[in-house]
Design brief:
The structure is a homotrimer.
Chain A (H helix, E strand, L loop, with lengths): L12 E2 H8 L2 E2 L8 E2 L1 E2 L9 E4 L6 H5 L5 E4 L13 E3 L3 H12 L20 E2 L4 E2 L4 E2 L4 E2 L4 E2 L4 E2 L4 E2 L4 E2 L4 E2 L4 E2 L2 E3 L4 E2 L4 E2 L6 E4 L2 E4 L6 E3 L4 E2 L4 E2 L7 E3 L4 E2 L4 E2 L4 E2 L4 E2 L4 E2 L4 E2 L4 E2 L4 E2 L4 E2 L4 E2 L4 E2 L8 E3 L4 E2 H20 L8
Chain lengths: 354, 354, 354
């Protein structure tokens, strides 16, 4: 990719410095003063870039690679040609991710609109709101009564922070998001247009239509959670909706009232989780999955994209399909379906006789 | 749940007053002066709370329940221990919902950002717009030319009301929603980030790409409709898109141009309804369902989550699956699939021989 | 539909003028001075309306039609009764679309909030941003540092244009959209609440949770693209996310990082396209389809609604289902499923014995 104006390369770090930051080992100290400024995939890394490899399949690409350094596991170090500086790491992917964050700190957070002043004059902040020092409020943000915002947090342009909401330190609320009836920990990132804390979908059938059941719970978002663009998270009905520490949620996910999600989960785009479902720790959910209300998903479960979860899922399992079943079963069903399709096309006599 | 700052408990009502409001019967008039302030599920209701039961399965919970009153049907009254005041109602769920609304009126509507003044000075309101008395306009809302807003309606922070839009009385437009080319009845609630009235998706293939078909219809939203966060409703092409009285729509639902939805429907999150579909009255649609364009869904139909509707569905039926079929058939297919999965796992010889 | 206030009929054009504009042939020059002002479907076209027909099935409707003109192919002209002026076009649908745009130019673009002045005083525009002449900035829009906006482009109310973003000429950014880290061509339309250019969903597993992989690519949106309400398009990780010329994307579509979409595609609502997928030219994707990351979809492919694409799809094919298979196979499977359901219902002895 030609250089772009949104993320300028770093002014440069010596490999020795970078290795120390990453907790990696620079194999040849002759390379200590080589300067790196950016990250790139091995297929097009050039001078100044650092890249990484995970398997022996990268051998050919290494032969012609012009990167200024390659991060790899000790077991793969022999693959790397002499001319390329090698950094050893037991987790090259994580080391590469850390390098990226070091080179492009601005890219770790939603795009900033902050001008010279910390509090944009166009923002509307209730006088009773408490902002710690170092809080940035971008243009046209609205902050309600008695809201509390921690040090180092940025409230994005045109975002909305409801009355009494508490946001911890070093959080980023991107432009156009709304946060209501919620308590956020530290280091939380909320992307553009996410809607947190509106009331859940609950009604009782009455004689003249549905009667709204008041939703008086909250949304609790623990430390280091990230929530994608246009995702919606309803507040609890009479309990709380909880998103556990370190969980990452992609765009356009819908999370119903009272849902409890554990720590360090990854939830891909357009997933829907119905009310009162309980998701364990370290759960990974593929895109467009639907999860029924009140089910329990055990720790470490992995769910294939587009699956429909109608029952509890035991911890540690991999599942797929609608209804969801063990992943191997699902993949076999998929393979059978595909093979049936191919056979059918070739079957003499054709489908008229089916 | 510990007390929360977003919804403070009510100052308290006498059970006699509450019974009168609910149209319920307080069994023992000795309890007339007991004070209630909040609602809770039976599992953790305490002094000051009112709860409800729907079946005999709640017997054990009742034994240890500390609520200040229990709402139940006459047939279940004998279950309730002597120490608990009983309110009889033929519809305990509805009575409980009404009690919730009475205790927490603020929770019946999107979170308010209104300060002391009724019209926020930062709002931009076209001079030709007509606002009845008692209209509240929150910070940074934009109201276009010739828009008309009825008494008691609140226009939320940073929401957008298009030119010529008409909104009835006692409506709530939440922060960050946009309403264009639409006529809204009374008592309508539009949640955060909902997008109403942008043009539908219509093109004619031309020699140099797709030619836009102008969308000159409107969106008609009847009384007491509620529309969820980040839901999108396109205006009609040459007809109108219509949402019938009392219908409730959850978050992230997509409703295409010319769709007509009847009265008192419930549509769960992430449903997609393609253009010109007709949905009857009292229809219930589960999450992530997709409905093909131009189909007709009869009154009272219930559709299971994630179903795909490709054909008309007769009134009163229950359906599920893709393609949608009678719910019992679908559930049997689901059960067979699950049972096949289980058998397979146990089959001697394993899947290598399949 | 009764007249509506959102889109007033045109002041009127002579049929001769309209024919010239459309490149159509007015059969009978006696009708040259007939005035038309609007478009309507044949079923309710009246005096002043123009309509079109595509097949002989419209014969009955034509008999009672009161339109001021009918557009049709030469082969169908004999169907039209004597009293109705006929315009011949080899592509009546496209001609009708063009007529609509001529009568209702305002409906070709998102609803405008622009008052008398071109730059709303409430907008916050960084002094370093460059706006060509004729740029309209509506109330409360925020434009970041060094952004560049081309002549004739309208930046909608409360929309957000990030630092360094470049937007071409004659574009429309609707109210409440956000555009970050993106380069837009000419004639691009972005609808309300669309979120363009936030960072993609990428993490490396680390010892203490997921480590964010910086997303330093861009979003490139070519000429005449249209993007629907509340759609989200993530910027590239180390490459760019690209939407090709003339492609039309509906509401609530999710497009992951590094996705490349060709020219003149049509993508219906609620589709999800995972990271690094490559979509060819002229591809049509039905609603709620999910496309796996890194797959390649050939030119001209058509995909039925709700399908799940797990593998590459060859150019020119039609596909449906999950897993996606040739459309004919999928439709046969659907028909079998439906027929099985019907048989089952009629089977003597019933399902108790199943």
């Amino acid at each position: 990719m030609e250089q772009n104006v949104f993320f300028l390369p770093h002014e440069g770090l010596r490999l020795a410095e970078l290795a120390e930051f990453l907790g990696a080992e620079l194999v040849n100290s002759d390379h200590a003063d080589v300067i790196v400024r950016s990250v790139a995939p091995i297929s097009r890394a050039r001078a100044g870039d650092i890249c990484y490899i995970l398997s022996r399949r990268s051998r050919d690409e290494l032969a012609t690679c012009e990167a200024s350094a390659v991060i790899c596991d000790k077991a793969l170090a022999d693959l790397v040609p002499q001319h390329l500086p090698v950094m050893l790491s037991s987790n090259p992917h994580a080391a590469f991710a850390m390098a990226g964050g070091l080179f492009y700190p601005a890219a770790l957070r939603p795009v900033a609109f902050s001008g010279e002043s910390e509090i944009a004059p166009s923002a509307v902040i209730d006088p009773s709101a408490k902002l710690e020092k170092g809080v940035i409020v971008e243009p046209m943000a609205v902050i309600g009564a008695h809201a509390e915002i921690g040090e180092g947090t940025r409230i994005g342009a045109q975002s909305i922070i409801g009355p009494n909401v508490k946001i911890g330190r070093d959080c980023s609320i991107a432009a156009g998001a709304s946060i209501l009836c919620a308590l956020l920990g530290n280091g939380v990132i909320i992307h553009n247009g996410a809607r947190i804390g509106q009331d859940g979908f609950g009604y009782a059938p009455g004689p003249r239509g549905m009667i709204k059941i008041v939703q008086i719970g909250r949304v609790i978002i623990q430390d280091n959670v990230e929530i994608g663009a246009n995702t919606t998270i309803d507040r609890g009905a009479m309990d709380d909706t909880v998103i556990g520490e370190g969980t990452k949620i992609d765009n356009q996910v819908q999370i119903g009232h009272n849902v409890q999600i554990g720590r360090h989960c990854a939830i891909v785009a357009q997933v829907g989780i119905a009310g009162s479902a309980k998701i364990g720790n370290g759960v990974q959910i593929g895109g467009q999955v639907g999860i029924k209300g009140h089910v329990t998903i055990g720790d470490g479960v992995q769910i294939a994209a587009q699956s429909g979860i109608m029952t509890d899922l035991a911890a540690g399992g991999q599942y797929g399909g609608t209804p969801a079943r063990p992943l191997n079963d699902y993949l076999r069903d998929v393979a059978q379906q595909m093979s049936k399709t191919k056979l059918r096309g070739k079957k003499p006599g054709g489908e008229q006789n089916d």
